[in-house]
Specification:
The protein is α+β, with helices and mostly antiparallel strands. The protein is built from two helices and ten strands; from the N terminus they run E-H-E-E-E-E-H-E-E-E-E-E. The chain has a single domain, classed as Roll (2,3-Dihydroxybiphenyl 1,2-Dioxygenase, domain 1), CATH 3.10.180.10. Pfam families: Glyoxalase (PF00903).
Length: 125
Amino acid sequence: MDYNALIPEFEVSDIEQSKQFYIDLLGFKLEYERPEDQFVFLSKEGSQLMLEQTTDKELVYPFGRGVNFSFGISDVENLYEQVVAAEYPIHRPLVTREFRVGDHVVTPKEFSVLDPDGYFLRFSD
């Protein structure tokens, strides 16, 4: 496995709850884990993410304030439907946005959720 140059690592309050959210709900792949460290390494369509259960009592929900993690995926509409069907709270519903990039315009579809610890996750095509 090749590692990306930048891989975010989230401190989480409950590694099992986070695994269920990322793997079972969002479809991330478990690349490997170290149960003794309450650590997992996940991937989804080229994105990589590390999760580790924290013992830091000073972290207060929502974790990662002010940071927006954006994941480019191939079928954002399908993932959105899965999240809605699971009755998981949607932070920002699926919309088509318009952005100027240099001299042209892109129109990605995107939606956002907060993970169990309040990390802001945006998924777009």
